[in-house]
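Whiteboard transcription, Tuesday session. T.W. wrote the structure tokens on the left side:
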């Protein structure tokens, strides 16, 4: 704190400062004003004088102009001799040093003043003063007198001109006379021609040398508001007034005064006035100081002295009135102080009685020294009068320094400002009692911050709370042992307990959850709409009944994981049956719901398969007749081109119908793929390139060379890849990129938690850059007949799912709107096998005897026509019994059947599946081809296991039919040759 000074000293300092500032400001103004008045007076006097000089200049310089002009007017048109005679007479009246001469038309002098007769005949026409047009020339040196002159020119007649050289020296007497009347020290006249040459100057050398004086008048400024110019000449500053002469036109006349003498005069005047003002201010200061001391500072000092003598503890405080000062307000101040002293005494007594009546400890301690500044009666009764002692020594026991639990640092912020009241429980180490302490930093009477603590004894309530806490802990132990998640809350929905199962499901620990609102911990939404579900606590408190959550409730865990749950809430009642809280019991049903959804999805797929299986046999038989006959018709070389085109279109439509049937049969229960170890890389690239041929979508592959083989049905997996590539292409109508990547997945890969068991897999990922799939559609993406495209059948992805599932694989999808879609397929690793050698299937070199067994007459007729076209003999049978009889008859007759084609199933009779065993019993070397419209039938998929040599899938055309027949016949011939 800075050193305090008496009021009288402050008043003196302030008064001195005010007087000084007044003197400086007033002095500055007086100086400026005096200087301005001085300049104004100079301008006025100089202007009056220069006006006189201005009026005299034309008459001085052109003294003979009127007489000569009149003469020239009289001589106009007169003969030259008469003119010359008149000029001679008039020129006798010239002033000293003035020269007259007359020029003829050739510019030669025909007459000149007699002093200069030697120049008779001289030609001065080349000189500027002769050539220029103006009547009065510039100042120049006369070639005759060698003096500074100006030339006046007059036309006498048509042939002669008069030049009158006026000597500048003739105007000097008049100007010198004007200068003698100077008012200011060293004032002078300066006359400059329009070219800036000195025509008159106190320094006559400048005039004689025709010095260009305007160049030496530097830093020319003005005129100012008073009409004064200022400039520097020979390093001296001058003030001047200036006028421009009309005759001679453009000449400038200056009346100048040196600036320094004027400034000295002004400074003397200013100094005199400042001294007078200083004396006046000194007298004024003394008077003011006396008045202030008499009527202000001394009465205030008297009041201060009285206050210093005042005793706050006195019963009748009184501050005596100061000595008479003639000021009523000081008397009122004294009375007001006395009144306030009495009020303070009464207020202090009331405060003491109030605080002492509290059933709580109240004390105040210094926050730096820990000194006790105040303690109420309650504290004195407990600890004695310990005012002035250290709080940590008197209020606690066993302390060797400030208490480690001291709250001082919590009561003020980093900038030293008081914080809100800090409430905390504490067990006193002296009394052993529990207190609820309320600590706050407050300003003390001397301005420092101190700690005030109000401590209320809460020992009984603390014991009750501990008992209740023990009871709650026993309840919590019970609840934690329950297998379901349990959360308890109070009636306001604030969490009071959460068991370990609930911790695991919600992601919140007990220490984190307790004290938080249930909405934050138990965040539940509707699974389908995503809307928040009504808080069960509110419903339980409102109804007082046990409530169940609605179906499709999803709990959003702390990390955002959604869990399907089943939940119930019940009220917690006290001994008076009042609701004091709510208990929620819930369990995770995510896996249960997932299994239910998979079961429903499998049932949907199976229903599609049942439907497909029911129509496939008859439908494929019909397609066989259609496609077979079309293929036979197309072999006719005599067909017209238009007819062939129509048949080809019909064949293409039939192929599409066949493919649709095969896709539907994928869902058929029991249908198995025909698997073999395959390098999946070629299947992927061939299928993708085929689909994307000619489109604006490009495909990029990332397939390692060491990719494992897979055990798959080549055709079915190709169909899966094609379906996924088609979907990706259609998702990018304006073009884009498809990325296909493959990798090996070892057993138990941590990166692929969806894969279970001890198998190794090949991972295939197909990712596009399309718009993505909304989250609400992802769960239904593999459902049959579910499609996001108007023209879609809704079977493509369902077929993919069914095929991959039958290959013991796994398919999944990941997508976000705006970030594309990725399908991931996992296929089991296949056994390493040697690459098959593709044999050239040449047609058999000899006709064969072929038996065809089918219950459809149109299939029999078609087969006969195809075999006849291939050059074979045909035997037809309508069922298994008939086929066995005909085969046995052929063996016995010595004309055996070389090949048998049997339909797998004969409604109401023996089909190929039943007949193959008996046929092989008759002839173990029999070559039998099984034919069926069930492409995914286990017998067709594993035909060799049942004794068949090959399988023929309906519907078929001539080319695949002949290839299978010739292949089996060729194999039979090879065995015979071997």
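and on the right, the sequence the group agreed on:
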């Amino acid at each position: 704190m800075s050193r305090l000074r008496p009021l009288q000293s402050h008043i003196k300092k302030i008064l001195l400062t005010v007087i000084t500032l007044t003197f400086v400001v007033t002095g500055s103004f007086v100086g400026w004003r005096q200087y301005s008045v001085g300049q104004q007076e100079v301008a006025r006097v100089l202007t009056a004088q220069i006006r006189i000089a201005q009026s005299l200049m034309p008459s001085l310089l052109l003294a003979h102009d009127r007489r000569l002009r009149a003469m020239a007017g009289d001589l106009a048109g007169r003969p030259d001799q008469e003119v010359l005679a008149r000029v001679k007479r008039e020129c006798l009246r010239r002033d000293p040093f003035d020269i007259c001469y007359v020029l003829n038309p050739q510019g030669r002098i025909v007459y000149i003043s007699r002093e200069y007769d030697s120049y008779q005949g001289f030609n001065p026409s080349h000189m500027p003063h002769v050539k220029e047009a103006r009547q009065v020339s510039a100042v120049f040196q006369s070639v005759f007198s060698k003096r500074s002159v100006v030339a006046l020119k007059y036309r006498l007649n048509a042939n002669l001109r008069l030049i009158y050289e006026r000597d500048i020296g003739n105007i000097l007497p008049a100007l010198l006379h004007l200068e003698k009347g100077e008012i200011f020290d060293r004032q002078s006249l300066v006359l400059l021609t329009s070219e800036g040459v000195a025509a008159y100057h106190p320094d006559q050398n400048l005039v004689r040398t025709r010095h260009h004086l305007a160049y030496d008048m530097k830093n020319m400024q003005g005129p100012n508001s008073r009409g004064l110019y200022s400039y520097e000449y020979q390093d001296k500053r001058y003030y001047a007034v200036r006028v421009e002469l009309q005759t001679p036109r453009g000449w400038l006349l200056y009346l100048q005064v040196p600036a320094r003498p004027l400034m000295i005069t002004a400074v003397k005047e200013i100094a005199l006035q400042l001294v007078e003002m200083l004396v006046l201010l000194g007298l004024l200061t003394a008077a003011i100081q006396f008045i202030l001391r008499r009527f202000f500072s001394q009465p205030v000092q008297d009041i201060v002295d009285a206050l210093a003598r005042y005793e706050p503890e006195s019963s009748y405080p009184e501050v005596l009135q100061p000595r008479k000062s003639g000021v009523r307000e000081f008397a009122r101040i004294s009375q007001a102080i006395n009144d306030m002293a009495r009020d303070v005494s009464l207020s202090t007594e009331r405060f003491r009685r109030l605080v002492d009546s509290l059933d709580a400890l109240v004390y105040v301690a210094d926050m730096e020294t820990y000194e006790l500044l105040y303690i109420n009666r309650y504290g004195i009764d407990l600890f004695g009068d310990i005012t002035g002692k250290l709080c940590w020594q008197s209020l606690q026991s066993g302390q060797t320094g400030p208490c480690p639990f001291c709250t001082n640092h919590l009561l003020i912020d980093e900038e030293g400002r008081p914080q809100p009241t800090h409430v905390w429980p504490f067990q006193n180490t002296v009394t052993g009692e529990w207190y609820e302490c309320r600590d706050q930093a407050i300003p003390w009477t001397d301005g420092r911050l101190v700690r005030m603590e109000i401590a209320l004894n809460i020992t009984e309530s603390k014991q009750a709370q501990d008992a209740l806490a023990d009871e709650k802990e026993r309840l919590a132990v019970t609840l934690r042992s329950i297998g379901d998640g349990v959360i308890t809350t109070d009636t306001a929905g604030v969490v009071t307990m959460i068991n370990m199962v609930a911790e695991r499901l919600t992601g919140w620990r007990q220490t984190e959850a307790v004290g938080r609102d249930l909405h934050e911990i138990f965040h539940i939404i509707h699974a389908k709409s995503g809307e928040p579900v009504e808080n069960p606590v509110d419903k339980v408190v409102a109804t007082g009944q046990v409530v169940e959550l609605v179906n499709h409730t999803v709990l959003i865990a702390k990390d955002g994981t959604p869990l399907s749950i089943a939940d119930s809430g019940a009220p917690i009642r006290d001994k008076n049956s009042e609701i004091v809280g709510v208990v929620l019991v819930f369990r995770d049903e995510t896996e249960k719901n997932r299994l239910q959804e998979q079961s429903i999805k499998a049932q949907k797929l199976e229903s599609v398969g049942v439907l497909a299986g029911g129509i496939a046999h008859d439908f494929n038989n019909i397609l066989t007749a259609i496609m077979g006959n079309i293929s036979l018709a197309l072999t006719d070389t005599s067909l017209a081109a238009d007819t062939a085109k129509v048949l080809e279109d019909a064949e293409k439509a039939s192929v599409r119908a066949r493919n649709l049937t095969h896709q539907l049969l994928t869902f058929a229960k029991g249908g198995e793929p025909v698997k073999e170890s395959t390098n999946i890389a070629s299947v992927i690239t061939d299928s993708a390139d085929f689909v994307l041929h000619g489109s604006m979508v490009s495909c990029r592959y990332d397939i390692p060379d060491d990719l494992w083989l897979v055990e798959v049905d080549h055709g079915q997996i190709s169909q899966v890849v094609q379906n996924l590539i088609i979907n990706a292409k259609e998702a990018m109508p304006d073009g884009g990129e498809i990325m296909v990547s493959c990798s090996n997945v070892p057993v138990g890969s941590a990166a692929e938690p969806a894969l279970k068991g001890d198998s190794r897999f090949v991972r295939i990922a197909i990712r596009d850059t399309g718009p993505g799939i909304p989250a609400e559609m992802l769960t239904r993406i593999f459902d049959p007949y579910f499609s996001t495209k108007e023209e879609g059948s809704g079977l493509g992805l369902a077929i993919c799912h069914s095929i991959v599932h039958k290959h013991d694989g796994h398919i999944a999808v990941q997508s976000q709107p705006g970030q594309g879609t990725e399908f991931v397929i996992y296929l089991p690793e296949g056994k390493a096998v040697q690459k098959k050698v593709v044999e050239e299937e040449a047609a058999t070199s000899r006709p064969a005897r072929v038996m065809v067994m089918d219950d459809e007459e149109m299939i029999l007729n078609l087969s006969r026509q195809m075999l006849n076209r291939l050059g074979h003999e045909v035997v037809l049978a309508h069922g298994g019994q008939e086929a066995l009889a005909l085969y046995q008859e052929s063996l016995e007759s010595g004309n055996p059947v070389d090949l048998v084609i049997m339909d797998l199933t004969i409604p109401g009779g023996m089909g190929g599946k039943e007949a193959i065993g008996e046929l092989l019993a008759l002839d173990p070397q029999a070559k039998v081809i099984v034919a069926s419209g069930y492409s995914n039938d286990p017998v067709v998929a594993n035909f060799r296991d049942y004794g068949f040599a090959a399988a023929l899938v309906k519907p078929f055309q001539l080319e695949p039919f002949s290839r299978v027949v010739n292949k089996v016949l060729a194999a039979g011939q090879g065995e015979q040759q071997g």
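Someone added at the bottom: The longest strand covers residues 562-573.
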